[in-house]
Write a structure and sequence with these properties.
heterodimer; A: 113 residues; mainly beta; 6-stranded mixed sheet; 4-stranded antiparallel sheet; B: 113 residues; 5-stranded antiparallel sheet; 0% helix; 54% strand; globular
Chain lengths: 113, 113
C-alpha cells in the first residue's frame, strides 16, 4: 500500500526488553490492524484499532499493546520481549472500523536475542 | 475461532503450466477470502480476493474459486512465469467484523524454467 511507512525497518533487542514499533499512513485511514509474521509462517492478527480504541484482538497476551493517534499514526508496544517475538511486524491501515481488505505496510523486522 | 488449512506446502511446476493451491476453512461465518503473494524479504501483497456471494473471480492469469458448502477455496494460476515464484498465502475473515484475517501456512510455488 503506497503512503504507508513503518519504522524502524530492522531492530535488534534482547530478551526482557521493551520495544515500540510505528506505523504511519495517509490521512483518512482511521483503522489500523497489526500482524505478526514469524519466519516461515503466515501473518497472525494481533489487534485492530479504530478511532483510537482497540476494537478487535487476536490470541496475543496483554504485553502486546497499541496506541492510535489523532493523526492516524499508530504504535505497537511489546513488553518483556521473548525469543519467540522475533518476527516481521506488519501494519495494515484501512478505512472504516471493519474493513476487510488489508494492504500491508513494508514491515519491521524484529530480532530478539 | 477460525482455522485455515492450506496445501500443498511446496509446489513445483514447469514454466507455462498451471498451478493450483487449495485452502479449507472451519468457520461457516467467514465470507471474505483474500490471497497474498510474498516474495523473499518483502511484505505480503494482495493479489486477488473473493466474497461468499461469488463463486469465481478472475484477473488475467489468476483466478479464485469458492465452494462455500464444502468450505474450501482455491487459487489458480495459468501460464506460469518465473516471476510467479513466491510464497502464496490464503486467508479468511468474517466480513464486516474486527476479527482480523486468519492465514494459512503458505505454499512455496517454484516455477521451473
Amino acid at each position: 500500500e503506497t503512503g504507508v511507512t513503518q519504522s524502524p525497518t530492522h531492530l535488534i533487542k534482547t530478551r526482557g526488553q521493551q520495544v515500540t514499533l510505528r506505523c504511519s499512513s495517509q490521512s483518512g485511514h482511521n483503522t489500523v490492524s497489526w500482524y505478526q509474521q514469524a519466519l516461515g509462517q503466515g501473518p497472525q492478527f494481533i489487534f485492530q484499532y479504530y478511532r483510537e480504541e482497540e476494537n478487535g484482538r487476536g490470541n496475543f497476551p496483554p504485553r502486546f499493546s497499541g496506541l492510535q493517534f489523532p493523526n492516524y499514526s499508530s504504535e505497537l508496544n511489546v513488553n518483556a520481549l521473548e525469543l519467540d517475538d522475533s518476527a516481521l511486524y506488519l501494519c495494515a491501515p484501512s478505512m472504516g472500523g471493519s474493513s476487510d481488505t488489508q494492504y500491508f505496510g513494508p514491515g519491521t523486522r524484529l530480532t530478539v536475542l | 475461532g477460525e482455522n485455515v488449512e492450506q496445501h500443498p506446502s511446496t509446489l513445483s511446476v514447469q514454466e507455462g503450466d498451471s498451478a493450483v493451491i487449495k485452502c479449507t476453512y472451519s468457520d461457516s461465518a467467514s465470507n471474505y477470502f483474500p490471497w497474498y503473494k510474498q516474495e523473499l524479504g518483502k511484505r505480503p501483497q494482495l493479489i486477488i480476493d473473493i466474497r461468499s456471494n461469488v463463486g469465481e473471480k478472475k484477473d488475467q492469469r489468476i483466478a479464485v474459486t469458492l465452494n462455500k458448502t464444502a468450505k474450501h477455496f482455491s487459487l489458480h494460476i495459468t501460464e506460469t512465469q518465473p516471476e510467479d515464484s513466491a510464497v502464496y498465502f490464503c486467508a479468511a475473515k468474517k466480513g464486516g467484523g474486527a476479527d482480523g484475517l486468519t492465514f494459512g501456512k503458505g505454499t512455496h510455488l517454484i516455477i521451473q524454467p
